[in-house]
Amino acid sequence: xxxHLLAILLSTSALISTGAVAADLSFxxxxxxxxxxxxxxxxxxxxxxxxxxxxxxxxxxxxAADQAVAKFIERLTKAGVERKNINSANISLSAQYRYxxxxxxxxxxxxxxxxxxxxxYKLENLNTYLDGALGDGINQINNITLKVKDQKKYQDxxxxxxxANAKEVAASLAKGFGDKVEGVWQIDYNTNDRxxxxxxxxxxxxxxxxxxxxxxxxxxxxNIVISDSVNVIFKLAK
Length: 238
Fold this sequence. Notes:
signal; four-stranded antiparallel beta sheet; 2 domains; alpha+beta
């Protein structure tokens, strides 16, 4: 899979440490924030569809929504999508009313809404899955999110690039002030704050059945970016 490791001159910050942690350090030091990014071609995707059915009774609305979803799932599985990659558990039912001016609300029926999330591991087939969805009774296709299978591998690459960036900036700063970096004193890395892949040329897309819709785009031509960052406090040579 083609990838490109960015040179990380972007968005890098470095400063003489301040704040509560830095104030407690009695030796010469500096703090840098290293940032790294890896650009990769997507090889999988996830998209969600909504089916909405309004009928006189709750059972009729649910049945209509269930039938549309069942038809959609059947077509997907025949096209090669494994059932475990189709999540169709979400459903909601709500009473619907019309509100005439200066009159009491009028009950009009029940609305059933079902959401289906599909994970696609053959990106070249994504357009095929989308093309027939509206014909299966799906009201809307949305949130087409491009992904990469081996995210951990690229996340690790982005992390190593962030570490190298932090070290490079620290060495450059120290040299500029006529000093040298002696070693690492503290590493601050928040694993719960790692950015997820995002489309560089297209964020999650809405689908519409017209000639200029997302379905006519080549999804494999898009890139996704996986990024990481690390804060490091370096000791300076005395």
